[in-house]
Amino acid sequence: MTEATLKTTKANAGASDDSDGMDYLVTRRSRFVTVYLPLILIMFVLLFPFYWMGTTSLKPNSELLDMNNHNPLWVSSPTLQHFNKLVFETEYPAWMWNTMLVAVVATFLSIVASVMAAYAIVRIRYRGAQTVGGLIFLAYLVPPSILFIPLSTVIFEYGLFDSPLALILSYPTILIPFSTWLLMGYFKTIPFELEECALMDGASRLQILLKIVLPLSVPGLISAGIFSFTLCWNEFIYALTFISTSANKTVPVAVLSELVDGDVYHWGSLMAGALLGSLPVAIIYSFFVEHYVSSMTGAVKE
Amino acid sequence: MVDAAPGNDAVVSASFWTRLNENRTVLGLWFMLPAAAFLIFFLAYPLGLGMWLSLTDAKIGRAGEFIGFENFTWLWGDSVFWLSVFNTLLYTVVASVIKFAIGLYLALLLNNNIAFKAFIRAIVLLPFIVPTVLSAIAFWWIFDSQFSILSWALIELGIIDQNIDFLGTPNNARASVIFANIWRGVPFVAITLLAGLQTVPQSLYEAATIDGASKWDMFRHITYPLLTPIIAVVMTFSVLFTFTDFQLIYAMTRGGPVNATHLMATLSYQRAILGGNLGEGAAISTAMIPFLLSAIMFSWFGLQRRKWQQGESDD
What we know:
The complex is a heterodimer.
Chain A: H1 2-15, H2 19-58, H3 61-64, H4 81-89, H5 92-124, H6 129-140, H7 144-157, H8 164-170, H9 172-188, H10 192-200, H11 205-216, H12 218-234, H13 237-242, H14 251-258, E1 260-261, E2 264-265, H15 267-287, H16 289-301
Antiparallel strand pairs in A: 1-2
Helix pairs in contact in A: 1-2, 2-15, 4-15, 5-6, 5-8, 5-9, 5-12, 6-9, 9-12, 10-11, 12-16, 14-15
Chain B: H1 10-13, H2 16-22, H3 24-53, H4 70-76, H5 79-110, H6 117-124, H7 126-129, H8 132-142, H9 149-156, H10 170-197, H11 202-210, H12 215-243, H13 247-252, H14 264-274, H15 278-309
Helix pairs in contact in B: 3-15, 5-10, 5-12, 10-12, 12-15, 14-15
């Protein structure tokens, strides 16, 4: 802070002799104080937990629990023992596989269902389509945390308890409303004339959807898919309630319930587990940042 | 499914079935089928069932009998339930207000011409995309009573003498979970508001500058009015997700110490799934619905306002 004020006073002092050129400097420097400094501060707070996760997962236990002889902000002798333990001594690979399977299948099912629903609402415009659109938006607002109790009895009734199928079938209820809403916006931008031409040439509605509408809305499909995938990966309460066997758990639930034994917290492996579990979403996100942002903001703007 | 191309037998095959499938409503129904099946069996039915369960004394493994409003009258006299309502409201209001303030500030910062803008925006969103439970575990560790890096840093700086028990005392625990929630929510608010800011026409600012408006005037009279519709929607979602939060509390405190951080969602989990009283848990969930409805109404009027503001027809 002092350094920053120093800079502004310096700039002000210089401003008297050559006002035109210095004005440029003043704005540059005050810009640093008003824009870059707060930005750096906020970014630091937002990113520090990741740094802390990373360093913790690389520290040997001795270093981890001794803050007097080792600077906790740095790793003096990095080790992969926590990752090793995770991969070879726990069921972590199975949890990863479960999460991946559930996320991919649930996303795929949701996108198929959403494409059809969105197309029907926007383009087929059957009687009551507007009302159904409104209802789907309402479904988006029903949170899992008021549904999980009755849903757990339903899952039990359907005989799906403790199987990945329970999650594969219940996640779409979170994903479909969102994706449908997003895709409705995309389909609205496709010119009617294209479809009319195809209809004249004798194409069926399904052909129009598959051959004209879908190829034109690939960005929308990717956005909805990426967003759905991260939502699946993030989902917790259903996975916690519907799955009981360790080997069937998803990463978020398993890291919390299986890696903590008693009062002894193995912080190293916990952080390694959290880091590894975040990796798939982070990688996918880094490739499709623009799609992700547009889906997030698109859903809000619609 | 795919209709045959019109050929010789097209006239014959234009049967009842084909004509039926050309009817908009019937065709629409076919297309709606998969989505409707999911939403009816796994959303609408459980939602209704939940309300029914709240009127029964169902336990895990035993279907309940109808007992009227007994669960609700019991909750009415239950101090832990009221504490959870208080906690939920406190958590929602404090976290949402701060998320909005910091989020809007961050959005305004990012709306400047800055270097590596796209990259910074991508980085800012990281806390939002990382699974909540996993980042909550990181916060659990950051707020550890013995090895907290925050305590360490504050001691090194000479601000405090001994470790702060972040999650051990009621008010510290509340502040800590609220902090973690804000940390996760700010990127969402900031990035969506940033998208809104980018739709505000630059010419308005140019005109205002010529008229001699100050930065604050421009914010107050251009940015803010044009942004209100998006603010309404973003904040409704933010409030909705904060109010129904579960994972963060479950990972960091499990409602403790002495129920000080129990939210309605975590309390209903504890009573229904761990305690086995499905009816009572369902009653707590049902009690959340009025609050959610008011949030939805808020969103609805926010959207309405947006339409007439922009002079769009209401379609």
